[in-house]
Design goal:
By secondary structure, the protein is α/β, with parallel strands linked by helices. Helices cover about 35% and strands about 20% of the residues. A hairpin with a 2-residue loop joins strand 6 and strand 7. It is globular. The termini are far apart. The structure holds adenosine-5'-triphosphate and magnesium ion.
């Protein structure tokens, strides 16, 4: 026989909820009041005053909001989040805020960026240590794949002494025009906005430029162009870690760098050097991940066979060892080389096998950029102080 036990009010779940709710009657004004006690460690002002808190939502004991971090607010985000959690937990015992603080990139204010780059959301360098490993091939095909997936994409050829973009987009005779504000209008092909020094000067003329001339030409080309609204601006870097690299990290706040390598030991050693340059504490550009190009060769007549000409799995091992993302593999395919030379990037045909590899690389890059933007502050440009 069932006993008819009458529950007392405080034994019912409804009552418990009501008590919790009453205890947790938190107002936005109170939360803002508490967050005013959280001071930005470098800027020495509170995070409300700095306009860093947005999208506050309070649902019973659950408090969530976004911390807006721009270049100026760049700091140890984990510590700042922890300070917010500590302050709110101390003020409202039982509040649930841990894990509810999102990090969002703060839109740049007008004064922070030159005109033409204001609406560019992410700037990504495609680099390596070693020459000839396929940076330009990866940058071009990645740009086309991202554009085909609906992103607004730009591509800069920063290889002043050996520009590849005019050839790889079949734009030998392209001459960019200036708009009414006297800004350079990038050339558009396959949905990608492009600029290369090869559009302005004869390759032989650029070869004799000294370092400062080359970097100032590059600076003018990037900063005085009207890029418009872009989701991704990719920079196809020259090989090595020289003057141009330094110029780029000084003039642009890079979202991150993608490192391209073949699986060969010598290439991997140079890829590590390239990676370390970006990760150097004075430079501090996040490495979005490593791409293995020329991962294997499959002859057309033996489509099941994979020949690991440069070794097997080298980039994946390096990525794991260095704690960076492994973004994908691209095999050696004759059509990649031929289509590059003809100015018809292989990624244009997403249904082809090799096109598919570039499209899955684009997916990994989109995910890596999103992850980076929600976990790290915007990069600061490197300032070089003269002694
Ligand atoms: N996956 C691939 N399959 C076939 N050929 C490729 C592949 N990747 C690159 N290549 C070819 O290898 C050569 C070098 O590639 P690419 O110019 O992209 O390298 P890079 O790293 O940009 O060189 P540099 O250091 O000179 O700028 C080109 O002829 C290109 O077509
Ligand atoms: Mg190149």
């Amino acid at each position: 026989m069932k006993k008819n036990i009458k529950k007392r009010p405080w034994q019912t779940s409804d009552y418990i909820c009501r008590i919790r709710k009453i205890n947790m009657e938190i107002t936005p004004a109170q939360v803002f009041g508490v967050l005013r006690t959280v001071v930005h460690p470098e800027l020495k002002r509170d995070i409300i005053q700095l306009g860093m808190v947005q999208g506050l939502e309070i649902d019973g004991a659950n408090v969530s909001f976004a911390l807006l971090i721009g270049k100026k607010e760049s700091t140890n985000i984990a510590l700042l989040k922890q300070n917010c959690v500590d302050a709110l937990e101390a003020a409202f015992p039982g509040v649930n805020v841990r894990g509810n603080i999102r990090v969002q990139a703060k839109p740049e204010t007008e004064a922070d960026e030159p005109n033409g780059l204001r609406k560019v959301k992410n700037i990504i360098a495609v680099a390596s240590g070693k020459g000839g490993v396929g940076k330009s091939t990866v940058a071009v095909n990645l740009a086309v794949a991202l554009a085909q997936q609906g992103a607004k994409v730009g591509l800069v050829d920063a290889d002043i002494y050996g520009p590849s973009i005019p050839l790889m987009f079949d734009l030998h005779d392209a001459r960019p025009m200036a708009n009414e504000e006297q800004m350079i209008v990038p050339v558009e092909k396959y949905g990608v906005r492009l600029l290369s020094i090869g559009f302005f000067v004869n390759a032989k003329d650029a070869l004799v430029w000294r370092g400062p001339m080359a970097t100032s030409a590059l600076k003018q080309m990037i900063m005085e162009a009207d890029w418009g609204e872009l989701d991704y601006l990719l920079i196809d870097m020259p090989p090595g870690t020289g003057d141009i690299h330094l110029a780029i990290i000084q003039m642009l706040a890079l979202t991150g760098a993608i490192i391209v390598s073949t699986p060969q030991e010598v290439a991997l050693a140079d890829a590590l050097k390239g990676m370390n340059m970006f990760r150097n504490e004075k430079i501090n550009v996040p490495v979005l991940g490593l791409v293995e190009n020329m991962a294997w060769f499959t002859p057309a007549e033996l489509p099941e066979n994979k020949y690991y000409i440069f070794g097997n799995g080298g980039c994946k091992r390096l990525a794991e060892k260095e704690g960076v993302n492994f973004l994908g593999q691209i095999p050696i395919v004759q059509s990649v080389c031929e289509s590059g030379d003809k100015g018809m990037p292989a990624a244009m045909d997403s249904s082809s096998i090799v096109g598919g590899y570039f499209h899955s690389l684009a997916d990994s890059v989109i995910a890596a950029v999103d992850y980076r933007n929600s976990n790290l502050a915007a990069t600061r440009k490197v300032e070089v102080k003269k002694k």
